[in-house]
């Protein structure tokens, strides 16, 4: 039966992650496909010159990570959004 308590679910997820990484010799190689996929999501394509294209990809990835951090933070009292 799945855990319904948020603290228990979090603990189960942490346990699973720690178990996975304890069995992975090369963590960078294991996550390379995910990093490539995220960068591709923000890639404007070959029509944009390379220095600008790389900057746009970096900005998109950084904005995505900031949104994820905000989503994990508890809402402040009186916060409308």
List the helices and strands and how they pair.
Blueprint: H1 6-22, H2 27-41, H3 50-72
Helix pairs in contact: 2-3
- Spans with pLDDT under 50 lasting ≥5 residues? none
- Which percent band covers the strand fraction? under 5%
The helicity comes to 55-70%
| SS-based class | mainly alpha
Oligomer: single chain
List the defining traits of the structure above.
81 residues, mainly alpha, 68% helix
Give your account of this protein's structure.
By secondary structure, the chain is mainly alpha-helical. Helices cover 68% and strands 0% of the residues. The chain contains three helices and no strands. It has helices at 6-22, 27-41, 50-72. Helix 2 crosses helix 3. The two termini are 34 Å apart. The model has no long low-confidence stretch (mean pLDDT 91).
What's the short version?
The chain is mainly α and 81 residues long. The protein has helices at 6-22, 27-41, 50-72.
